Amino acid sequence: MIRRTLTILATTVLAMTSGPALAQDNQPLVTLHTTQGDIIVRLDAGQAPITTCNFLRYVQAGRYAGGTFFRTVVAETNDSPAPIDVIQAATTAGSDDPGLGPITLERTIDTGLRHSAGAISMARDGPDTATSSFFIVTSDTPALDFGGGRNPDGQGFAAFGLVISGMEIIQAIHSAPAEDEQLISPVVIGAATLSTGLPAVCRA
Fold this sequence. Notes:
25% of the residues lie in helices and 27% in strands. With 204 residues, the chain is of the alpha+beta class. The protein has one domain (26-195): Cyclophilin-like (Cyclophilin, Beta Barrel). The radius of gyration is 19 Å and the shape is globular.
């Protein structure tokens, strides 16, 4: 009876620490502590490991501390043939920070992720040029996905997670006064902290 009870207990513990634990490991949470309040994003290391691990390198190195949300793009006033609704942030070194070097573009056609409202994604010029600057989408914007018209190369941008708390802060930043898409009063990121463990794929 005792042996049978221990077997059942061991089976239960294994079930509790396998699938769900892996899912949590692949979806770390990062909090952006801004002067407007906290924004929490859930990253997807399972679907976008390169982009997620790159972002977490900057988080762990403290490179976003003192950085800013400096840009807002509003579709209604954007004269591009593929208007978008986003806010963009950069590290302390600014939007052109070469940082830790460029990464391979993880296309949405491969990851299955989309630029829906609340998506976090990497800013870039050409493919495989993203470093540290990122943006958050304020409304569904398929023009940023693979095949979308926002970038002439049609490769889209690398979405790698989703905001799970603080969307009202993002909307407020998006609607804040700006000139030529540059916020009059940039919103400072005091710190970016990882509140869960580093995903196994990022420890390899």
